[in-house]
Write a structure and sequence with these properties.
This protein has seven helices and seven strands; from the N terminus they run βαβαββαββααβαα. Bound molecules: thymidine-5'-triphosphate.
Length: 202
């Protein structure tokens, strides 16, 4: 049963249509806020520390406009393989190369979520929780012609690792996953449900 938000309002600060869809799927009403946030990070960050850092950085960009009783959700997804992060590709060539590298291998998809609200008792401070979820994704060997066809048709330039598990490549090229499917798409919905409940103390 969907729990009561106790008069709080959820603000999803995300431009990602997948995140909008996933939070809708979880059953909550929410408002979307967007702005461009610099997504750069230090080379010294590895694995989960990257999306954890970036989800907080995204929260920092919105916290000044947050009102009491609003819960801000920000999130970041990275693809992690062999001690290397795969960001969004900048060209079709880069997208093809990324998928070719993922082909026939297992990689990890890590999504971090940051929940922020204003602390009503202590002025000027905010309450914040960050958590992450990790899914192992096993790609089958995918033929180059198939990769090129996918990139050309789906233009996955807005997706970490140059692919969408929810698109053709996920249907045809993913052998198995360990962990949450929705986490790969952009939000660890089950963990988010539990963390939101804890955050609101309900
Ligand atoms: C791996 C993978 C990623 N993605 C998407 C989820 C994210 O939208 C995107 C990773 O980029 P992010 O920087 O996490 O998010 P974003 O820039 O799209 O949105 P925001 O405004 O919240 O910062 O890749 C899929 O849709 N399917 C997948 O299988």
């Amino acid at each position: 049963m969907l729990f009561d938000l106790k008069g709080n309002k959820i603000i999803l600060a995300s431009k990602s249509p997948r995140r909008h869809e996933l939070l809708k799927g979880l059953g909550f009403d929410f408002e979307v806020r967007t702005k461009d946030v610099d997504e750069s990070f230090s080379d010294s960050l590895k694995g989960a520390d990257i999306p954890l850092y970036l989800s907080k950085k995204k929260a920092d960009a919105f916290v000044d406009e947050l009102k009491p009783n609003e819960i801000l959700i920000t999130s970041d997804t990275v693809v992690w393989l062999g001690n290397k992060v795969f960001n969004k590709p900048e060209s079709a060539e880069e997208a093809v190369e990324m998928i070719a590298t993922l082909s026939g291998r297992m990689h990890e998809v890590i999504t971090a979520v940051c929940l922020t609200s204003l602390n009503t008792e202590k002025d000027g401070t905010s309450k914040q929780v960050v958590f992450h979820d990790l899914t192992s994704v096993h790609f089958a060997k995918i033929e180059r012609a198939d990769i090129e066809w996918y990139v050309n048709k789906y233009k996955p330039f807005d997706k970490a690792g140059a692919y969408g598990i929810q698109e053709w490549i996920g249907y045809a090229g993913i052998d198995k996953i360990e962990g949450s499917f929705y986490n790969v798409m952009g939000l660890p919905t089950q963990k988010l449900y539990v963390e939101l409940k804890k955050f609101l103390n309900v």
